[in-house]
């Protein structure tokens, strides 16, 4: 399909901005970079956790089995991922998990205040509803993608429903890790802290669209890697131990 707006600069987003506002355009690129990096790292975490869990479970079955045929892992043994929040980040994360982790749609649930806006995800087979407590009780890994203003109420709703072996992975900004643990009365909480190295923008982030499409570009993948730093997105080393009873 031809883009009829191509070369029509009067329709560009930047056209209506003042000179002072144009100086802040680098923030759009940074926002894209942070969203993409957060989703990519979350997907890597889930894939690593799921693969490790499957391997340990299969080894456990092998040790106990008296026959040559091993039982197929049941649905209850496959990693269950909950996404609390159906906004932009929650939707992008769900798509990335679907495409890059090997998880089935039935192993991903989303709780949103407006589940009616998630029809496309429901058609994929992802469970979409508005019941944060139900999501918390079901999830092995629970991603917090709600607004910071809603976080206190969300934590009050779900803290009593979290299983001891549930890992809470927060993508909510402006709330420190220790504060999150207090609000949730939960110790297995992971919260990556991102930052940009240098004051200049990185052009690769300005050109990225949907996260799933961007992650097919080797240059974007390289820029999102926290070890490479080519995208100038920093992710300090996190001290986090997966509880042994989870595995």
From TrEMBL:
One of its GO terms (molecular function) is pyrroline-5-carboxylate reductase activity. Keywords: Oxidoreductase. Transmembrane segments: none annotated. Residues 80-168 form the Pyrroline-5-carboxylate reductase catalytic N-terminal domain. GO terms for biological process: L-proline biosynthetic process. Pfam families: F420_oxidored (PF03807). The keyword S-adenosyl-L-methionine does not apply. Probable oxidoreductase. Belongs to the pyrroline-5-carboxylate reductase family. This is NADP-dependent oxidoreductase domain-containing protein 1. It comes from Atractosteus spatula.
